[in-house]
């Protein structure tokens, strides 16, 4: 099949690479010429395991090419995927400027029948509007169909997810377009959910909002576990083995971040209020997530007697989660800002997100370290903010020899509590009463109001 993919961000670039790997001929389009030149050389604009190998292989085998010209890119295509960004606007809903612009341009350049597929996450009603916009901009009386085909890729695992999706959602009002789309995905042998436009659009938001709810639920469970002496990881394990609950997305931590969950939950809430409905549960999900990082910081502040000036912390993790260099809406970055705002000096390390972090955090009161051990050298505490696997296997003896006081704040429950306590650390995790929390309860309670305000 001949396919055009507009937008070479996470979704578009991974999509283009995998579609070409399936034997299709793909032209990727992006307005950013510098980015296109880098991709052609095999330099990926994002860190995504396995991606550059697939891109280079398919470029060299002639199935994958890139251009900055939309008209050229879509000329011979049977399917045109729209994978442009839909960031959060100031009012909380999705900013669809890029989608509208691309739809108009597609309309102006449409000369033969094509299926136009919206992969970008868009609110209910967008596919219908895109259809109208394309129609209004046609220069010839060309036939076309619009299809909603939301993506469910996780950053850091998107190559894997694209090849092996749990399901494919196809929202369409045309049997012809549906059959073309099915022929693209049929070989995967995975369930295909046929839907109308609005249901397909809603499935994406509902899925992300439900996963975010699972995280906020377990983060609230963590609060009760900590207070009552239960261990949230054990509770999550016990819950997750019930097939109706499932084990995934039950890791308590400092809250969810990234380019999708915060934006999509807010957008769904906005959709509900636009429909004159107050989605109460979602309000709670967002509030819990907002407070979670403050609660974590308050443990650090209280441990150090309410004053972080003059303290130096070794911080592991800046990306919004493991396996990515992405720091968009990263809670780790927010925690770093709060700690710095409270007077601490931070020695930071992340396996992939150093460059991106430096751009937003600058260098005041922050030292960017070459590895995890350099970051903790001669510091007052180890603070873990991202769930990179390599942080879970840190050599505790080396940590002990590096830290001035033997205290660890684990914002991702990534360390083995038993081993950490055996190594005689004071260990603060999320949702676990430990030697650390007992010690904490003997200290004066109360959290300085300042830490409830984010940022420096
Ligand atoms: C998410 C969805 O999973 C994906 O289907 C959609 O297409 C895009 O949004 P992604 O943003 O890549 O993917 O990250 P994900 O792995 O879902 O994690 C989101 C956030 O939740 C991260 O900050 C992560 O640290 C946090 N998280 C995740 C938890 O705090 N606990 C968990 O148990 C799981």
Automatic annotation (TrEMBL):
Domain UDP-glucose/GDP-mannose dehydrogenase C-terminal: 314-417
GO biological process: polysaccharide biosynthetic process; UDP-glucuronate biosynthetic process
EC code: 1.1.1.22
Top EC class of this enzyme: oxidoreductase
GO-annotated molecular function: NAD binding; UDP-glucose 6-dehydrogenase activity
Residues annotated to bind substrate: 152-155, 204, 249-253, 257, 321
Pfam families for this protein: UDPG_MGDP_dh, UDPG_MGDP_dh_C, UDPG_MGDP_dh_N
Active-site residues annotated for this sequence: 260
Pathway: Nucleotide-sugar biosynthesis; UDP-alpha-D-glucuronate biosynthesis; UDP-alpha-D-glucuronate from UDP-alpha-D-glucose: step 1/1
Positions contributing to NAD(+) binding: 30, 35, 86, 121, 155, 263, 328
Reactions listed under catalytic activity: UDP-alpha-D-glucose + 2 NAD(+) + H2O = UDP-alpha-D-glucuronate + 2 NADH + 3 H(+)
Keywords: NAD, Oxidoreductase
Protein family according to the UniProt entry: Belongs to the UDP-glucose/GDP-mannose dehydrogenase family.
Entries under PANTHER family matching the protein: UDP-GLUCOSE 6-DEHYDROGENASE TUAD
Protein's name in the database: UDP-glucose 6-dehydrogenase
